[in-house]
């Protein structure tokens, strides 16, 4: 694995394995790339390992869950070769997270303003004045009226949709190379979900930031991404251009996920749940892959 800084991907995950202390694998040989300015959706049912990939990239894996094999490169730099402190500051400078739950992501006892400007001054070394101007600019861009008043508010004084728009503003403010959006619309009601999705798409296009977009919703995949990685039980089932995946899905599981997705404005057949026999077969394959992996002593 050589370092390819000249034509580095924004994100390069190579054969990543993540496991619990007793060896139970949560991610199985996951590889994926993200090019500059690209949106890649990570899709799969609950527990497939979508969030775990985002957390591994950002270096925020839950306690006890460890990378057992594989590499993560940000713009060609091997994160796993860095000291923890260098890794933390590299990741903080180059990437940002738009989390699932905007309420828990914001500190309830701090005003909004410093929660946006602090990372800009602390991590990116901006002057307070520059950070404040950027916060105002971004709040305005995410359609927050009266940004100054909002910056003096506490999170509980704002609606869920507003809080998520604030987190989007905060994520894009330092112009990161990579944003991990972890189910950013799941906690919101349907009309707000659409606005938030549109906003992320617009800002992503304007800034050219690459986005790893975690979702369980194939409808969202179709709207936001150019590439898609389909996961099942921590394994990559399919990796292709989003258009190809919808027009010509290669794997029966991807076909089943698409069939299980309600399509607005199309009065097609009723949605089909993913067939139980297919799930059973995939679990069987997963167990077989784990047995082989254990036998090879992680190769
Ligand atoms: N803190 C934890 N300790 C032990 N196992 C965990 C922990 N967090 C997640 N897992 C397990 O890791 C696997 C992947 O979880 P992950 O949260 O990445 O799934 P996901 O695809 O994002 O699902 P969801 O859509 O429900 O968030 C699951 O089997 C889950 O049970």
Automatic annotation (TrEMBL):
Q: Please state where this protein is localized.
A: Cell inner membrane
Q: Which SUPFAM superfamilies match?
A: P-loop containing nucleoside triphosphate hydrolases
Protein name, please?
ABC transporter
Pfam families named among the record's database cross-references: ABC_tran, oligo_HPY
Its lineage opens with: Bacteria, Pseudomonadati, Pseudomonadota, Alphaproteobacteria, Rhodobacterales
In this chain the ABC transporter domain maps to 11-258
Q: What is its main location?
A: membrane
Q: Which domain of life is it from?
A: Bacteria
**Similarity remark:** Belongs to the ABC transporter superfamily.
Give the membrane topology, semicolon-separated if more than one. Answer: Peripheral membrane protein
GO-annotated biological processes: peptide transport
Q: Identify the keywords attached in UniProt to this record, alphabetized.
A: ATP-binding, Cell inner membrane, Cell membrane, Membrane, Nucleotide-binding, Translocase, Transport
Q: Which InterPro entries does the UniProt record give?
A: AAA+_ATPase, ABC_Ni/Peptide_Import, ABC_transporter-like_ATP-bd, ABC_transporter-like_CS, Oligopep_ABC_C, P-loop_NTPase
Any GO MF annotation of the entry = ATP binding
Q: Which GO terms describe its cellular component?
A: plasma membrane
């Amino acid at each position: 694995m050589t370092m390819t800084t000249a034509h580095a991907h924004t994100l390069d995950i190579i054969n990543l394995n993540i496991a619990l202390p007793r060896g139970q694998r949560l991610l199985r040989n996951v590889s994926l790339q993200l090019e500059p300015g690209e949106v890649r959706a990570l899709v799969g049912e609950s527990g497939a390992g979508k969030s775990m990939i985002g957390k591994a990239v950002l270096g925020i894996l839950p306690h006890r869950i460890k990378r057992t094999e594989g590499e993560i490169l940000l713009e060609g730099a091997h994160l796993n070769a860095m000291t923890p402190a260098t890794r933390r500051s590299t990741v903080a400078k180059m990437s940002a997270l738009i989390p699932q739950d905007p309420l828990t992501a914001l500190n309830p006892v701090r005003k909004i303003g410093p929660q946006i400007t602090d990372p800009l001054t602390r991590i990116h070394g901006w002057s307070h004045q520059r950070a404040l101007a950027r916060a105002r600019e971004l709040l305005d861009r995410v359609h927050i009226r009266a940004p100054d008043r909002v910056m003096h508010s506490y999170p509980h004084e704002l609606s869920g949709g507003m809080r998520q728009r604030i987190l989007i503003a905060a994520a894009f403010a330092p112009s990161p190379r990579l944003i991990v959006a972890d189910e950013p619309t799941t906690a919101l009601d349907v009309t707000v979900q659409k606005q938030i999705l549109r906003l992320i798409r617009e800002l992503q296009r304007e800034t050219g930031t690459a986005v790893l977009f975690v979702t369980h919703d194939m409808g969202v995949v179709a709207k936001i991404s150019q590439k898609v990685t389909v996961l099942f039980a921590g394994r990559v089932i399919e990796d292709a251009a989003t258009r190809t995946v919808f027009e010509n899905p290669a794997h029966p599981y991807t076909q089943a996920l698409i069939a299980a997705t309600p399509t607005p404005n199309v009065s097609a057949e009723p949605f089909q749940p993913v067939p139980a026999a297919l799930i059973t077969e995939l679990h069987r394959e997963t167990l077989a892959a784990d047995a082989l992996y254990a036998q090879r002593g992680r190769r």
